Amino acid sequence: MNRFIAFVKKEFLHIFRDYRTMMILFIMPIAQILIFGFAITTEIQNASIAILDKSKDEVTRELTQKLLASGYFSADQYLSSESEIESAFKQGRAKMVIVYESNFGNNYEKIGASNIQLICDASDPNTARILSQYAEGIFASYNRTNQAIGIIPEVRMFYNENLDGFYMSIPGIMAMILMLVSAMMTSISITREKEFGSMEVLLISPLRPLQIILGKVTPYILMAVINTISILALGYWVFGVPVKGSLALLLFECILFTILALSLGILISTVAKNQMVAMFVSMFALMLPVILLSGFIFPIDNMPVILQWISNIIPPKWFIIIVKTIMLKGGGLEYIWKETLILIAFIVVFVGLSVKKFNIRLQD
Amino acid sequence: MIEINAISKAFDNVQAVKEVSLQVDEGELFGFIGPDGAGKTTLFRMLNSLIVPDAGSISLFGLDPVKQYKKVRQIIGYMPGKFSLYTDLSIEENLSFFATVFGTTIEENYHLIEDIYKQIEPFKKRLAGQLSGGMKQKLALSCALIHKPKLLLLDEPTTGVDAVSRREFWDMLKALKSKGITIVVSTPYMDEASLCDRVALMQNGKVHAVEKPQVIVDQFMGNIFAVKSNNNYKSLLQLRTWEHCKNVYPFGESLHYLDHRSKVSEKEIENFLLEKELAEVEVALVTPDIEDCFIAFTQTETD
User: Which of B132, B115, B125, B50 is nearest to B95 (CA)?
Assistant: First the structure.
């Protein structure tokens, strides 16, 4: 046990004495969450819109009023014909054009249905989708208050009809940061021992492989817990992301995921010969799948079937589901026990593989 | 006692160690002398159980490094060729880390490392990365000794260390030897061979001779002439073309020349060189040292 404590102490000294490691561990997660949070914010305020009102009646005025009063939109210009729509976009000011059909109010009151067209500048798909959703929401609430059958908004995305956008959320960033801190840092710190030759001395020592591995991992579990808490705190106070479910359960799942990422890091270090290789493997083999295939940015349901299969073996996918369920939906363990078991299964496999692959000698 | 029995090891296409057999007695200071790439490090790693030999067997005080590696790792102190302590930890932190890992404390075995450690103790708060080569080496030796090993394996401990520190280091080894620790050391420096009890000359994975340094020198056949002139390089080229030349190679400020004939006088060599338009020629008979022996061994190897 003394050996183990000495080893952990040594690891902490390594971390605290290297300012670069400290930066990656503490500054980067905070920077990342702030950048992601502010740059890819889903809140839109005062987006410029243009209005083409062919009807100009009571109802359209009231609707326009409601849109502008919401705070999301500000009227940039009023158009008089369809030919002006394109130039409204080209000038780059208007993000959305609202077209009321002629006789809008008449149709609404007599037939109970009238048509409105939302034309969005989807060269920025994210904004386009959000704006159209906001507008639809406002129209829907107008419908409800007036007990009519409805205005039927017809949404069309200009320039990028498919809306290949992405949405992001705290769960994804959390998965990414924990993966980065845990997997990359451990794999680098183990390969550093190999590179500097100190692994040779450690191997000769009476330390068992499991002790070396656990000693390497323990400091990073602590670091990851600190990071998780700071991410949640930032999310809550800076971006107003609430934790609806149990905080304890969330922390438990985060630690579980951290352990998974750490075991993956160890597995990488058993394969990688030096720090460079370890870093590249961590970056490309872990970060890219996490970003692309975990559902962090691109919805898994929209992927080709093969990629959907592959996404099942991407651990962060399950973690993101868990975090979303706990944080955003407020679900308890009864909703996520399956995903939790999958994480545990991953850990068992990775730890088993790395202890087996961890060489007691210098050769294969 | 260490018994090495016909061990071999190959990496991919390189035969690093070829059928090496030898014995090291308990309490001996044994040296492996050979150039870089001779197979010394591979041999050491087979001794310390980090590498499994392809063929042959090793016995370290009755223990087999392949099967009983755990026990072997407890009785040996190993100092790899590359400085392999933690550069971001201080002297004291490094030493106490290795002491704890080996299940001991600095205080418990302080008497063993005292002579060495007290030289670097004034700087014990300094990070190991900021130490000079000689100090690093003393720290590494202290760390290898802290658990009171029976056998000390030192892989090129003096490479990259200044002459004074090297001298000191060998004095330390002699002191350790007197405490009953068996020491096996490797070095590419020929002049260090004479400081060992016995040496093994290694070249291309093979061991050529295992003897006391003096015996190796005594066994040397033929006379060696130190040749100096106003243009050593030109004399070297000229002597190489001479029909009687057995071997000639640069040696410090002069050339060492060996003749095929059993009896040849300094005058003959001098005259040959003067004929070839060289001036200030000085020829003298010298006693061979271990380096001459080594060159002779490697020469017969390549012939």
Answer: B125
Nearest-angstrom CA–CA distance, B152 and A361: 19
Question: Rounded mean pLDDT of B208-219?
Answer: 81
Angle between helices A247-271 and A209-237 (to 10 degrees): 140
Query: Smallest Cβ distance to A362: which of B51, B89, B102?
Result: B51
Number of residues that this document lists for chain A: 364
Q: Global pTM?
A: 0.73
Q: Which residue of A has its CA nearest to B79?
A: A201
Tokens describing residue A159: 């320039």
CB contact under 8 A, B86 and A198: yes
- When CB atoms are compared, the residue of A13, A207, A363 closest to B51 is A363
**Which of A17, A203, A207 lies closest to B50 in CB terms?**
A203
Please report the sign of the dihedral spanned by the C-alpha atoms of residue B145, residue B147, residue B150, residue B155.
negative
Core vs surface per residue A313-331: b (16+ CB within 10 A) or e = ebbbbbbbbbbbbbbbeeb
Classify domain B221-287 at the CATH topology level: Alpha-Beta Plaits (3.30.70)
d(CA B181, CA B152): 7
Sheet strands side by side (includes A47-53): A73-79, A47-53, A96-100, A113-121, A150-158
B79: left (phi over 0), alpha (psi -120 to 50) or beta: beta
Percent of chain B with pLDDT over 70: 98
Tell whether ipTM is more than 0.90.
Answer: no
Dihedral sign, CA of A12, A18, A22, A28? negative
Backbone angles phi, psi at A111, to 5 degrees: -85, -25
Residue A199 confidence (pLDDT):
85
Distance CA A89, CA A23 (A): 43
Pairing of strands B254-259, B224-228: antiparallel
Could you say which DSSP state residue B127 is in? B
Residues of A in contact with B106 (CB under 8 A): none
Which residue in this structure is represented by tokens 């706990």?
A326
The full set of domains in chain A, from first to last, is 2-40+164-363 (no CATH), 47-146 (3.40.1710.10)
The answer on pLDDT for B37 being more than 70 is yes
Q: How many residues does chain B have?
A: 303
Token pair 């590498």 in the structure block, residue: B51
Helices then strands, counting H and E runs in chain A, come out as 17, 5
User: Which stretches in chain A have pLDDT values below 70?
Assistant: 37, 39-44, 92, 144-169, 360, 362-364
Residues in chain A within 8 Å Cβ distance of B80: 197, 200-201
**What DSSP line would sit under A146-183, residue for residue?**
HT-SEEEEEEEEES-TT-------HHHHHHHHHHIIII
Fold of B2-212: Rossmann fold (3.40.50)
Structure tokens that stand for B163 in this block: 């002459």
Q: How would you write A255-272 as a 3-class SS string? A: HHHHHHHHHHHHHHHHHC
Q: Do B143 and A201 touch (CB under 8 A)?
A: yes
> How do the domains of chain B map onto residue ranges?
2-212, 221-287
Helices A315-323 and A333-357: angle between axes, nearest 10 degrees: 150
